[in-house]
Specification:
single chain, alpha+beta, 4-stranded mixed β-sheet, 10 helices, globular
Length: 303
């Protein structure tokens, strides 16, 4: 009987110890879940996860774009731009003028086909993207009628009296496809902020003496104007084109407003479309580059 009682006690002791051990193991699992739920409800957790994923994707895209631009710049810094690196002010402007003045010049009729390549819609090879409206339009609809696209001189022809002559009048670094009617509204106005909405202008605004392009191309416009100011310095029979801080420049060889153009350059940095365009012009047509697409910081370094 004593032996039986001893075995019974041992079984109870083992069972108690096993139960205690299982209880200890189970405690963290029981306490962890309520603590998590109390700290961050499922909806908040989902929102946090979404925000984190968005921030990560944005940071990755920005890093990729920066790395791509840096790689592209470094490719040309040691070759094409080697005589400009390290300079500022008038010395930088003079060096860039010398560099980009070596170019192949197009006829005005050749500009049609060039723009069909430089401004091709990346999502539809049959179309071009119109500068001010952002519309994708058939390449075949080039002309002067309503619904067509034509060749817009971003540095207006009258602001330098160069017309469509070979030279500044055919330089595709500032010639872009635009809707015929929107182009007419822009006319030869200087660039500035403000005004009322332009019909079919993609968010562009205008008033009596200025034109404001849609946000997505503000920087593009600024860098085209400043390219022209560096490229055409009055030494090749054309006017010395310069930006100033005025509007109503009329037929003078000036374009404004410089302070606004500088702000647009900062606000809208070069994107993939603009960078590709610069490359196509360099590789296939004029064989020169817009330095402010490769180095937007040079705008502040000069002006």
């Amino acid at each position: 009987m004593l032996a039986i009682r001893m075995r019974t006690r041992r079984r109870k002791a083992v069972a108690f110890a096993t139960a205690a051990a299982l209880t200890v193991l189970a405690v963290p699992a029981l306490t962890a879940s309520p603590a998590t739920a109390t700290t961050e409800p499922p909806a908040t957790a989902a929102a946090t996860a979404t925000a984190t994923a968005t921030a990560t994707a944005t940071a990755t895209a920005t890093a990729t774009a920066t790395a791509t631009a840096t790689a592209a710049n470094s490719d040309y810094d040691s070759t094409y731009y080697k005589n400009a690196i390290g300079k500022t002010g008038t010395a930088l402007k003079s060096s860039l003028h010398t560099i980009i003045s070596s170019q192949t010049k197009l006829s005005y009729s050749a500009v049609w086909d060039a723009l069909k390549a430089t401004d091709q819609d990346p999502n539809n090879s049959n179309n071009v993207i119109l500068l001010y409206s952002g519309v994708s339009r058939s390449k075949s609809l080039n002309g002067g009628n309503t619904g067509n696209w034509n060749r817009e001189h971003v540095w207006a022809k009258s602001h330098g009296d160069f017309g469509t002559s070979t030279g500044p009048g055919t330089d595709i670094h500032h010639l872009r496809p635009t809707d015929v009617q929107v182009n007419s509204v822009r006319g030869n106005k200087d660039f500035d902020n403000g005004g009322s909405a332009v019909a079919n202008g993609g968010g562009s605004l205008t008033d009596s003496d200025s034109f404001e392009p849609r946000n997505a191309v503000k920087g593009d416009v600024a860098r085209m104007i400043l390219y022209m100011a560096v490229r055409y310095e009055g030494g090749d029979g054309w006017a010395d084109l310069e930006p100033n801080n005025n509007v109503n420049n009329g037929s003078n060889p000036y374009m404004g407003r410089l302070s606004v153009l500088k702000a647009w350059n900062e606000q809208d940095p070069p994107d993939a479309f603009e960078q590709r365009r610069n490359q196509v012009i360099h590789d296939s047509y004029q064989h020169n580059r817009n330095p402010f697409i490769d180095h937007p910081e040079w705008v502040e370094a000069i002006w």
